[in-house]
């Protein structure tokens, strides 16, 4: 019976061991278990562009300085009937005034008159400027100012169409640009307001 | 020693005790318990309506101005552009995004009512852009074009999924700020999830 007792003790120890093992496993599992993993997240942003522009702008040209140009001495022959002959003032002989516009056009550069911002696939935008039909003349009655050669620029490049940076939607990341255009005063004979010139800016995501 | 059992009965008792010890031992994670973390979460595309615009192209007219011009064509002094607000917001939300779930086997005594008393959670989230920056999603082709992203954990909710299964859901709210995004298209990031159960 001693053997049997001892045998029982051994078996009981085994039972305790098994019980202990089971409890220990449960504690290990139940005490603190940590699992980790990752989930990839994808968000999709739409294309969007904002063009800021002036709907109207007025250029006030400075008043040319009035001048009296002394063309020098001249002697003319005058008949008794009152007819004078000799040197006369002509286009070729007129002295230059401070302002001369013959054969030239005035290129007007207006910085920061448009701005763009938004999102595009490439992060860029195309900005184009055109003169619509009838928009190439500023008129005051018969007096006209011709408008031509209009360009957009962004401080780095200039042209009728440019590819420029589209820096995002925030105002602080907007791209600013200017306009250049030529004005022809050769058919201008009136002072005062000449109206009717137009340009159209188009901004597109690319 | 009259009361001593025969060896065969002793063996049966041992087996019974072993089974009893297993049943009585506290169980927190059975083999039937399954944690599932979703590998990919494709969020609904951000719409123009969410930004507060009706069209993908907006023209914003500025107040007219007058400027002095010189005859020699020098740069005209134009006023500083005061840009109007052209959209409503740059903040976008995606709520109740399901990232993971835990299935518990009801055979271990779990019920919808007691699952929280038996399983306490601590869940940590970390969102990292493809460019490696934390709290960002980055554009697929331009690492400098980013969406600022913040994640907010929602309380774990459990429901009975079937007769033998209780499912607990790990959902989050995602808040995005697109003011630093430059490009349209897809932005990528990874959410690291660490779930600790007590």
Keywords for this entry:
heterodimer, A: 206 residues, mainly beta, 6-stranded antiparallel beta sheet, 3-stranded antiparallel beta sheet, 1 helix, 15% helix, B: 198 residues, 8-stranded antiparallel beta sheet, 3 helices, 13% helix, elongated
Would you give an account of this structure?
The complex is a heterodimer of chains A (206) and B (198). Chain A has one helix spanning 2-31; strands at 33-45, 48-54, 57-61, 76-78, 84-86, 106-119, 124-130, 137-140, 143-153, 158-159, 161-165, 175-184, 200-205. Mean pLDDT of chain A is 82; it is low at 1-30. In chain A, the strands form 3 sheets. In chain A, strands 2, 6, 8, 9, 10 and 12 form a 6-stranded antiparallel beta sheet that branches. Chain A is rod-shaped. Chain A contains 1 helix and 13 strands. Chain B has 198 residues and is mainly beta. Chain B has one domain (29-53, 79-197). Chain B is built from 3 helices and 11 strands; from the N terminus they run H-E-E-H-E-E-E-H-E-E-E-E-E-E. Chain B has helices at 7-24, 48-51, 115-118; strands at residues 34-37, 40-42, 57-62, 65-69, 91-105, 121-129, 136-139, 146-153, 157-162, 165-177, 185-197. In chain B, strands 1, 5, 6, 7, 8, 9, 10 and 11 form an 8-stranded antiparallel beta sheet that branches. Residues 1-30 of chain B have low confidence and may be disordered. At the A-B interface, helix 1, strand 1, strand 2, strand 3 and strand 6 of A face helix 1, strand 2, strand 3, strand 4 and strand 5 of B. Strand 1 (33-45) of chain A pairs antiparallel with strand 11 (185-197) of chain B, so a sheet runs across the interface.
């Amino acid at each position: 019976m001693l053997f049997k007792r001892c045998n029982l003790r051994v078996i009981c120890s085994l039972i305790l061991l098994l019980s202990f093992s089971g409890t220990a496993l449960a504690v290990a599992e139940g005490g603190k278990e940590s699992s980790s993993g990752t989930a990839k997240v994808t968000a999709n942003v739409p294309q969007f562009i904002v063009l800021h522009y002036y709907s109207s702008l007025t250029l006030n040209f400075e008043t040319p300085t009035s001048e009296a140009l002394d063309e020098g001495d001249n002697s003319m022959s005058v008949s008794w009937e009152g007819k004078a002959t000799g040197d006369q003032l002509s286009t070729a002989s007129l002295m230059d005034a401070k302002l001369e516009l013959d054969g030239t056009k005035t290129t007007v550069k207006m910085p920061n008159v448009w701005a763009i911002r938004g999102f595009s696939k490439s992060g860029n935008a195309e900005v184009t400027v055109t003169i619509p039909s009838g928009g190439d003349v500023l008129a005051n009655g018969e007096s006209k100012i011709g408008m031509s050669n209009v360009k957009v620029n962004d401080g780095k490049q200039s042209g009728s169409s440019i590819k420029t940076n589209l820096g995002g939607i925030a105002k602080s990341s907007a791209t600013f640009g200017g306009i250049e255009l030529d004005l022809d005063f050769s058919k201008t004979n009136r002072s005062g307001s000449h109206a009717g010139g137009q340009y159209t800016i188009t901004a597109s995501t690319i | 020693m009259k009361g001593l059992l025969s060896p065969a009965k002793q063996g049966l008792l041992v087996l019974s005790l072993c089974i009893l010890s297993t049943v009585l031992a506290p169980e927190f994670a059975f083999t039937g318990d399954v944690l599932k973390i979703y590998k990919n979460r494709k969020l609904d595309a951000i719409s123009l309506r969410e930004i507060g615009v009706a069209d993908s192209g907006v023209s914003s007219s500025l107040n007219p101005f007058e400027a002095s011009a010189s005859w020699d064509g020098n740069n005209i002094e134009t006023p500083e552009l005061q840009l109007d607000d052209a959209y409503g917001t740059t903040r976008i939300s995606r709520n109740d995004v399901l990232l993971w779930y835990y299935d518990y086997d009801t055979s271990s005594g779990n019920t919808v009512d007691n699952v929280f008393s038996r399983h306490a959670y601590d869940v940590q989230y970390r969102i990292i852009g493809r460019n490696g920056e934390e709290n960002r999603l980055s554009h697929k082709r331009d690492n400098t074009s980013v969406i600022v992203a913040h994640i907010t954990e929602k309380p774990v909710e459990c429901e009975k999924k079937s007769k033998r299964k209780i499912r607990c859901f790990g959902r989050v709210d995602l808040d995005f700020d697109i003011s630093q995004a430059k490009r349209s298209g897809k932005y990528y990031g990874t959410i690291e999830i660490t779930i600790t159960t007590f």
